[in-house]
């Protein structure tokens, strides 16, 4: 590539330390939010296709906050996390977005892209050891790697992403994650990761569009309302059912303190809501199997009304992840064994 960011300082070549980034009280985690997901569109099986044939969601999180970064970096042990340290005043920053975002989505959950406004929050640049943006840094298992600081030809980007994924696999980072955000419209003629045109997305039904707009604005209750109205008009609307479950997940987790939730989950293993809350965070963060296994174990060991409450919640998470996801199929079998 013709131009790369300066070499990463020696002290940043180890695990990335985001401890200096303090999330303001009450600030939500990764959802834009959505990416997924702000958010997100349908966290489901990575690479899952919607009924229209396009991606079920996006793996690009716009306007990521410091709190989002703290949580997304945790995902770098599962998939590479690309961080665009954006400089909105520099036209190159938008060019990078236009190039990298569709390329990441074309990989269907093998990568995540988070965009941070480094002009508004220069402290983030300091964490990554850079003086200015724009720049894209990849994080693998907590370790930052400079990637690029200007747009490049699509074939070069494709090669770069191939190399990044190969390096990730060699270091045991080869998973996939559900979408973080609603599916993005790249428009006719947009260029994807392999240089192919990305077709413009078909228009959504009005209530679905209303819900997606609300999700992108972080207005999860409004999104839930729009999906409920869509289901009232057509109870067989499968995408509205998925959307309602998805919006509910974002609404429940938006204000969660992840550390407090996980601590409670560890200290109160017999408390249904404590286990449900951890499972929600796990699904949102891509740890789908952990979430499913946690709730199945609870169901197996707790007869009575609590069992039914957790079972219903688990079924709702199956909807979020998607019935076609093999993790859902495996968990349904485990749930049947736990119940009978």
TrEMBL record:
Pfam families with a match to the protein in the record: TPR_20 (PF14561)
UniProt feature, compositional bias: Low complexity: 24-53
SUPFAM superfamilies: Thioredoxin-like, TPR-like
Protein name listed in UniProt: Putative thioredoxin
Organism: Citricoccus muralis
InterPro entries: Thioredoxin-like_sf, TPR-like_helical_dom_sf
Region (Disordered): 1-62
């Amino acid at each position: 590539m013709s131009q790369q960011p300066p070499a990463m300082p020696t002290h940043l070549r180890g695990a990335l330390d985001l401890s200096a980034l303090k999330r303001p009280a009450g600030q939500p985690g990764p959802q834009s939010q959505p990416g997924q997901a702000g958010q997100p569109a349908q966290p489901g099986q990575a690479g899952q296709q919607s009924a229209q044939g396009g991606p079920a969601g996006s793996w690009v999180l716009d306007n990521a906050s410091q709190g989002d970064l703290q949580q997304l970096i945790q995902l770098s042990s599962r998939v590479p996390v690309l961080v665009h340290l954006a400089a909105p005043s520099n036209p190159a920053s938008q060019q990078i977005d236009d190039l990298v975002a569709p390329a990441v989505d074309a990989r269907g959950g093998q990568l995540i892209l988070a965009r941070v406004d480094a002009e508004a929050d220069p402290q983030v640049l300091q964490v990554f050891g850079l003086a200015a943006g724009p720049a894209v840094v990849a994080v693998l298992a907590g370790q930052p790697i400079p990637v690029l600081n200007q747009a490049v030809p699509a074939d070069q980007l494709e090669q770069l992403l191939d190399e990044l994924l190969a390096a990730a696999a060699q270091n045991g980072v080869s998973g996939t994650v559900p979408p973080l955000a609603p599916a993005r419209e790249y428009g006719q003629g947009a260029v994807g990761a392999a240089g192919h045109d990305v077709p413009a997305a078909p228009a959504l039904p009005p209530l679905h569009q209303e819900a997606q707009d609300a999700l992108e604005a972080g207005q999860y209750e409004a999104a839930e309302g729009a999906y409920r109205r869509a289901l009232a008009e057509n109870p067989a609307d499968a995408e509205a059912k998925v959307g309602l479950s998805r919006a509910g997940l974002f609404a429940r987790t938006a204000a969660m303190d992840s550390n407090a939730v996980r601590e409670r989950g560890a200290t109160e293993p017999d408390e249904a809501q404590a286990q449900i809350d951890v499972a929600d965070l796990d699904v949102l963060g891509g740890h789908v199997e952990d979430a499913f296994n946690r709730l199945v174990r609870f169901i197996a060991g707790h007869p009575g009304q609590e069992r039914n409450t957790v079972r219903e919640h688990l079924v709702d998470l199956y909807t979020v992840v998607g019935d076609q996801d093999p993790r859902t199929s495996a968990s349904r079998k485990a749930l049947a064994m736990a119940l009978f």
